[in-house]
Design a protein that fits this description.
heterodimer, A: 5-stranded parallel beta sheet, 8 helices, B: 120 residues, mainly beta, 3-stranded antiparallel beta sheet
Chain lengths: 387, 120
C-alpha cells in the first residue's frame, strides 16, 4: 500500500491518520477536509467555547510537536469515489488516487425546512457554527432551542448561564428517551426546570415567523413562542451523499463490519458516518460519540493494512458524556436493550444518581449524574460482562 | 516536601487515594502492586484522575478518555495535550508518603484561571 487517503479531517480522520503511522504505515498519506480548519475538538463547542471560557487555540487536536507526514487538503469537499481508478474526486476538480481509503466524513446538522436565510436561526455542529452562535448569544435576549437532545440541552444550559431567557421545545413526550430511556430521560431533562429554563414537551414545531430575522417559533398546537435567537438541535445526518453509486454500501451511513470494513476492498469507514456492526448489540449501530471516533480507527486501520488477516477485538461499550447546568452526565452501553433500570446510588431529586440498566438481570448500560468514580467502575464492569 | 497520604493497608490494589492539597495529588496502587503519585487533575479539563480507569500503568481520565502514564506522566492522545506531574512515593513504617515535585503543574486553563482568580 503506497497511498492512503483519509476523507474527513475531524477527530475520526485524525485518529485514523495517527493509527496508520502508529501501526507502521510509512507511505503517502493524504487527509482531505471540507472545512478550512485543522482538526479541532467539537464537545466544547456547545459548552466552554460557547461560554467563552475556552478559546480556539485550546480546541486544536494536534500536539504541538506532532508531525504525521501527511498532505492536508483542507477547505475542499470530496464529491465522489471512483472504484475503478480507486480515486477520491474533489469539488475543485482534483483527484486523489489511493490504494487505501478511509471514509471519515462525519455527519451534518439537520436543519428546519424553511429556515434558510432567516437571521437569528442557528445549528451547532462546526467551529464556524459555534463562532456565529457565540457572537449572537453575547447580545442576550430570548433563546428558543428546538430539540431537547444533548446538543440542545447543552446549548440551553450554557445560554442560561450567560443570562439568556431560554425555552426548549421537544417533540417527544420525554426528552432523551432514545438514548436514556423514558425514566432517566425525564430525570436528566428535569435539570432544565431546576434552573428555570422552560421545557415544552410533546409538541412539534410548525415553523418560524419573522421577516428578515426570526421573531417566534410556531408550535403545532397553535402556540407561538417569542424568540430573538433560535437554535435547531434536531440531530444529524451522515455525510455520505458523495458515495452514492461508488459501490460502497450505504444504509444509515456507510454499512461496515465489526472491524470497519465496507463492501469495497481497501475502503474502511470510521466516525459519525459509519454504521458499524456491534457484536454486543447484535446489530448495526451508527454511534455519534467522541470516544467511538477516537477508538475505532485503530481497528479500522488494522483491517485496512492487513485486509482480512486481523480479528477485530470487541470494542468497549459506547460511552458519552454531557455537561449541563454544572452536572456531569455520563453514559455507557445500550439503553435500548434494557428491561429495567434502577438507581443504585444517590437520588433523582438531588440529581446525583448512578443508575444501572439491565436485561434479564445482566447489566447492559449505566448512567451517572455527578458520580464519576462510581460510573467509571460500572463502565469497567460493562466492558467485562457485556460481551 | 514529604506529605503523609494514608496507611498502605487502607489502599488496596486497584484503588486510588486523593491527597487534598493544592493542587491535589493522587496515589495509585496498581493491580500489580506498584505505587505511583501524579497530579490528580487532568491537564485538559477539571476532572479528577482518582476517578479514572486504571489499567497497567495508565490511568484514563474519567471524562474524556485521555490516558496518562503513571510512571512518567506522559499523555497518550488528545484532548489532553500536556503531561501531568509525577511525584515520588515513599512507604515508611506502613505509611504512604508523597514527595511533592517542585516542577510547575500543568493545570487545565479553567482551573489555572480559577487559582489565579483566587490569588488576586
Amino acid at each position: 500500500m503506497r497511498t492512503v487517503a483519509v476523507v474527513g479531517a475531524s477527530l475520526a480522520g485524525l485518529s485514523a491518520a495517527r493509527s496508520l503511522r502508529k501501526q507502521g504505515y510509512d507511505g503517502r498519506l493524504v487527509v482531505i477536509g471540507d472545512e478550512p480548519h485543522r482538526p479541532y475538538d467539537r464537545p466544547p463547542l456547545s459548552k466552554e467555547f460557547l461560554a467563552g471560557t475556552v478559546g480556539e487555540a485550546e480546541l486544536v487536536l494536534e500536539m504541538d510537536d506532532e508531525d504525521l507526514g501527511a498532505e492536508w487538503l483542507l477547505g475542499v469537499r470530496a464529491t465522489g469515489l471512483d472504484r475503478t481508478d480507486r480515486a477520491v474526486q474533489l469539488a475543485d476538480g482534483r483527484e486523489v488516487r489511493a490504494d487505501g481509503i478511509v471514509i471519515a466524513t462525519g455527519a451534518a446538522a439537520r436543519t428546519l425546512p424553511g429556515s434558510e436565510g432567516l437571521a437569528g436561526v442557528h445549528v451547532l455542529r462546526t467551529l464556524d457554527d459555534a463562532r456565529a452562535l457565540r457572537e449572537e448569544l453575547a447580545g442576550g435576549g430570548r433563546l428558543v432551542v428546538i430539540g431537547g437532545g444533548f446538543v440542545g440541552a447543552e446549548v440551553a444550559s450554557t445560554a442560561y448561564a450567560l443570562g439568556l431567557d431560554v425555552t426548549v421545545v421537544e417533540a417527544a413526550p420525554t426528552p432523551l428517551a432514545g438514548p436514556l430511556g423514558e425514566t432517566m430521560g425525564a430525570i436528566v431533562s428535569g435539570l432544565h426546570a431546576d434552573h428555570g429554563v422552560r421545557l415544552l414537551c410533546g409538541v412539534g414545531v410548525k415553523g418560524l415567523s419573522g421577516e428578515r430575522r426570526v421573531d417566534a417559533v410556531l408550535l403545532e398546537d397553535g402556540r407561538s413562542v417569542p424568540a430573538d435567537i433560535v437554535v435547531v438541535g434536531v440531530g444529524a445526518r451522515p455525510c455520505v451523499e458523495w458515495l452514492e453509486g461508488s459501490g460502497v454500501e450505504l444504509d444509515n451511513g456507510v454499512k461496515c463490519g465489526a472491524d470497519g470494513r465496507t463492501s469495497l476492498a481497501g475502503v474502511v469507514a470510521v466516525g459519525d458516518c459509519a454504521n458499524w456492526y456491534d457484536p454486543r448489540a447484535g446489530a448495526h449501530r451508527r454511534v455519534e460519540h467522541w470516544t467511538g471516533a477516537r477508538e475505532r480507527p485503530d481497528a479500522a486501520i488494522a483491517t485496512l493494512l492487513s485486509w482480512g488477516a486481523t480479528e477485530p477485538g470487541v470494542p468497549r461499550p459506547p460511552y458519552f458524556w454531557s455537561d449541563q447546568y454544572g452536572v456531569k452526565i455520563q453514559f455507557a452501553g445500550h439503553a435500548a436493550g434494557a428491561d429495567s433500570v434502577t438507581i443504585e446510588e444517590g437520588t433523582a431529586d438531588e440529581r446525583n444518581v448512578l443508575a444501572v440498566y439491565r436485561r434479564a438481570g445482566e447489566p447492559v448500560a449505566a448512567l451517572g449524574m455527578n458520580q464519576p468514580r462510581l460510573f467509571t467502575r460500572w463502565r469497567k464492569q460493562l466492558a467485562r460482562t457485556t460481551s | 516536601m514529604m506529605i503523609p497520604a494514608c496507611p498502605l493497608a487502607d489502599l488496596p490494589r486497584g484503588e486510588a487515594f486523593r491527597l487534598e492539597i493544592d493542587p491535589p495529588v493522587t496515589v495509585f496502587h496498581t493491580e500489580d502492586g506498584e505505587l505511583f503519585a501524579i497530579d490528580d487533575t487532568c491537564t485538559h479539563q477539571d476532572a479528577s484522575l482518582a476517578d479514572g480507569w486504571v489499567e497497567d500503568c495508565w490511568v484514563e481520565c474519567p471524562l474524556h478518555a485521555s490516558k496518562f502514564n503513571l510512571k512518567t506522566g506522559e499523555v497518550d492522545a488528545p484532548p489532553a495535550k500536556l503531561p501531568v506531574r509525577t511525584h515520588e512515593v515513599v512507604v515508611d513504617n506502613g505509611m504512604v508518603y508523597v514527595k511533592v515535585s517542585t516542577a510547575a503543574p500543568n493545570l487545565p486553563h479553567c482551573v489555572a484561571r480559577k487559582l489565579a482568580g483566587s490569588v488576586t
